[in-house]
Amino acid sequence: xxxxVTSAAVTSTAAGFAPAxxxxxxxxxxxxxxxxxxVVLTGRQFGPVAAVLVVLYPLFDVASAVVxxxxxxxxxxxxxxxxxxxxxxxxxxxxxGLGIAVASGIPVVLQVWGVWAxxxxxxxxxxxxxxxxxGGQWSMMLSGGISVVAxxxxxxxxxxxxxxxxxxxxxxxxxxxxxxxxALRLGRPxxxx
Length: 193
Hints:
Layout (H helix, E strand, L loop, with lengths): L2 H40 L5 H27 L7 H20 L4 H25 L7 H20 L8 H20 L8
Helix pairs in contact: 1-2, 1-6, 2-3, 3-4, 4-5, 5-6
């Protein structure tokens, strides 16, 4: 297969996939920012609302990964579906783990959240690298790397004297910003190859 044919196939796939991914990224950005505001407003006193919010975030990640996988599949972008399927599995486990952790308090929630952030960040980094031909993926790669670092921070914060969910809200806000940047850059000509 010639380079021209391969390049045309990548361009065709990107043209079909980028708009769906852009819409998803805009929704993810808005959700993350609203979620973070709600966590800041409710997370200082860890009660039922904060507990629901903690479990809701990875469940939204599952729903987003399902949409991502369907869009990847419908455009023939089979190499892009592995990451979303891994994200579905990891985020379902995180939601289950967080559902159990909320009964034990913020330190255990931060431990589960930290492990999830590390694993999900690694997946996001790899997916961003694999999708770099779509454009706008540098922010997803950066977000994945930062997620790994933040996850490690959450594990350390779990042992602090007065752990709080406020830092998790900051993590979600930063993720929302990265999704917004990626949505704005998707499908544009890129040199990120």
